[in-house]
Structures are given as C-alpha cells and as structure tokens.
C-alpha cells in the first residue's frame, strides 16, 4: 500500500533539500526512526464496536496496516473512562475490559502486535515488523480511592496515568472543571504521584488544571509527561493546553510534552469552541441537578449535543498548525523535550489535513524537514524523547524498591 504523502509536502521537503543539502526521504526516516505515539484511543472505540485492528479497518484511524505504512513502532493505547462512569462506579471494570480488548488484539495477531511494558524490550519485541502496544490510562478514576489498585494496573501493563480528565476526581482538578475542589492535587492525589513514582508509572499532566500540573511536576521524583497537549501560546485562555511557564517546568525536570494533533487543541477557533462547550455542559448539568431536586423534567442532553454540533461545525485545519506547535515547543524547551501524542480515534475525525491516520507520520516528517530539522532532531521528537523519559521513570522506580 503506498504512503499517502501529499505532493505539497514532498515539494517543501525537496525545496529544503536543495537549499541545505540532501535530506532523507520522509518515508525512509519514518521507517528507520522509532516512532512513539503516546495517545491513541482505539480501546474505547473497540468497546463501542469490535473491529479486528490487525486488518485494514476503514472506519478507524489506527490499525496494523496503517501503522506499518506510517512507520509507527509504539502505540500507547488509551484506557479511557469518563467522569460519568466514575460516578456510576463502573470505571474500574470498563478499564479492565479495555485492557482485555488490547490483549485480545495481540492474541489474535502475535505476528503483528506485542504488548510493551518496558522500553528495554522494544528492539526484541518489534522484530519482524510488529507494532508494539503500550498502555496509558486516561483518567485515574479506575483506581477509586485505593492506592493498591495502582499496582494491579501496573501488573496489567499500564505505564502512564492521566490523573484526571474533563472533571475533577479523587486525585486532581481538571482544566475543564469549573469547580476546583482541591486547588490542584488532592491529598490522595499526592499519595498517587508518590506511588506511581515507586511503581514506575509515568505521571501524565495532560487535562489537569494549572495548579495541579504545577504541583505534580514539583512532587514527582522523576520526569513527568504531558501525553497529548498543545501550547497555550496559540490558544490564549484555553487551560487544556500548557502555558509556557508549565511547559518549561516540565522540561526543567527532564520531562516531555507530547504534542497532540486534534484540531480542537491546535486550531484557536476550535479551542475556543471546546472551552465554551465544557462551560455549557457544566451549566446544563447544574440546571438538571436543580431540576431533579425540584422534581422538574431535565433538559435533554442528547438534544443539546445535536444542537451544539449543528452550530459549531469543525473548522478546516492545516498540518502547519501541528508543525507550528512542535516548532514552538522545541524553540522554547529544547529538542529533548517535545514528542508526539496524536489523539487518533479520540477526536471524532477532527484532525488536520495530512494527519488523518497513523499512516500519515511521513507527512509530519516532511513538514518538519522543511523547517530545517535534521534526522537526529526528528528521531528525538518522533520517539527518542519519550523513550528517554520512560527509561528514567523505570530506573527511578527500581532505585526505590
């Protein structure tokens, strides 16, 4: 299957090569480098409808043939649970079911997939063209209030945990949450960070409030990651993306910011829409809580969602929006502190032109080559930086056992 590298990006890469000497073909560099993507939402999609991702799957952004086409080596499968599932008491069971689904993919196709629990196993396991599946938990809700659950999820392969998602939980305040009950991390959340350090689970600060990010970075004995975030420089007022101050704090402690591809995070207009959406949802939930208390009918959330989608259509986004984010991060933090966390299969297809599936990493390589980045620079951004942090977290864990 041919790589879908756009002609315009090939032209840009070729133009740079003429100006600065021969550049490696973007396809070849994508194949040769170790590409690590820290956020792919395939497991949640599998809960909605099983697909054999070992085969070409037209309605998904991640599958084995597409991953091989794009040069993807390590795909962190996002084990996502919602605040609603947390409130219903089902988050833990759903998280385990999603891990079961990832294990099922490996069981069906041991020649195509393997589970990756340590960066030290990467070279051995990817032999023969396997795509390696690592596990990241998006939302710490499945651990409930029991620190012992961290060890159980670590034993199942979870190697990073996003402490909260779109609402505050027992661990941390969320960037989207209107109520900041903890003013950052909760007392339990501070214990969670320490236990994650001890076990060797990376602390992920994407989705957290500014105060929570600041506290997590300061408390962690080892580098932290932002598994799928952008830079707020491009989206003023959008707390879901990192401020320069917080991004610099992550880098100063050796961490890495994994830049997301989702249009809602890299397109300023869509970021504003996203922020407004969560404000509107919170207001709707408050009205419905009052209606329940008064015995009145609740507003139809599905109708609200339909109307929101009608009045806030996706906005066209160019690949340059992602390249600008990466370029800005590198200039601010240094080449050792930026990586990739796409959010494929997690943003309802709202992705930039040229970055629609895991087959498209060569397009990103070409665009970054056109900005003057060397092969060595790109190898760090594509995966080397994340592997360095993961190794440091693992080493820090071993020193405390």
Entry summary:
This protein has 401 residues and is of the alpha/beta class.
Question: What does this molecule look like?
Answer:
The chain has helices at residues 7-20, 26-32, 42-48, 64-70, 83-88, 91-108, 122-125, 148-155, 187-199, 210-219, 244-252, 263-266, 268-294, 301-311, 320-333, 361-370, 375-400, and strands at residues 35-40, 72-80, 113-115, 131-138, 158-162, 202-204, 225-229, 256-259, 338-340. The model is unreliable at 10-20 (pLDDT under 50). α8 (148-155) links the parallel β4 and β5. It starts with 6 loop residues before the first helix and ends with a helix. The radius of gyration is 20 Å and the shape is globular. 49% of the residues lie in helices and 11% in strands. With 401 residues, the protein is of the alpha/beta class. It is built from 17 helices and 9 strands. The strands form 2 sheets. Strands 1, 2, 3, 4, 5 and 6 form a 6-stranded parallel β-sheet that branches.
């Amino acid at each position: 299957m041919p790589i879908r590298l756009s002609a315009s990006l090939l032209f840009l890469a070729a133009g740079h090569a003429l100006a600065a000497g021969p550049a490696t073909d973007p396809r070849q560099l994508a194949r040769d480098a170790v590409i690590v993507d820290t956020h792919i939402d395939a497991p949640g999609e599998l809960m909605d409808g099983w697909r054999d991702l070992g085969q070409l799957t037209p309605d998904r952004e991640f599958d084995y043939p597409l991953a091989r086409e794009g040069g993807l080596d390590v795909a962190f499968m996002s084990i996502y649970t919602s605040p609603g599932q947390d409130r219903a008491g089902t988050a833990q069971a759903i998280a385990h079911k999603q891990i079961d689904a990832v294990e099922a993919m490996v069981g069906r196709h041991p020649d195509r997939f393997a589970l990756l629990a340590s960066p030290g196993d990467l070279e051995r396991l990817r032999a023969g063209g396997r795509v390696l599946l690592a596990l990241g938990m998006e939302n710490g809700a499945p651990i409930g209030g029991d620190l012992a659950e961290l060890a159980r999820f670590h034993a199942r392969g979870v190697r990073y945990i996003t402490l909260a998602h779109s609402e505050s939980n027992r661990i941390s305040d969320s960037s989207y949450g209107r109520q900041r009950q903890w003013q950052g991390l909760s007392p339990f959340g501070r214990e969670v960070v320490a236990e994650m350090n001890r076990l060797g689970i990376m602390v992920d600060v994407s989705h957290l409030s500014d105060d929570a990010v600041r506290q997590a970075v300061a408390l962690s004995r080892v580098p932290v990651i932002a598994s799928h975030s952008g830079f707020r420089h491009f989206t003023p007022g959008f707390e879901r993306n990192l401020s320069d101050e917080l991004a610099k704090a992550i880098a100063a402690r050796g961490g890495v910011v994994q830049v997301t591809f989702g249009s809602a995070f890299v397109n300023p207009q869509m970021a504003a829409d996203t922020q407004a959406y969560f404000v509107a949802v919170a207001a709707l939930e408050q009205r419905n809580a009052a209606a329940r208390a008064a015995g009145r009918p609740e507003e139809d959330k599905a109708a609200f969602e339909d109307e929101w989608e009608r009045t806030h259509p996706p906005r066209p986004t160019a690949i340059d929006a992602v390249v600008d984010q990466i370029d800005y991060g590198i200039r601010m933090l240094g080449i050792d502190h930026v990586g990739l966390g796409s959010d494929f299969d997690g943003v309802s297809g709202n992705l930039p032109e040229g970055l629609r599936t895991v087959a498209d990493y060569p397009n990103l390589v070409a665009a970054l080559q056109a900005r003057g980045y060397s092969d060595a620079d790109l190898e760090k951004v594509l995966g080397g930086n994340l592997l360095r942090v993961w190794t440091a977290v693992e080493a820090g864990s071993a020193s405390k056992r």
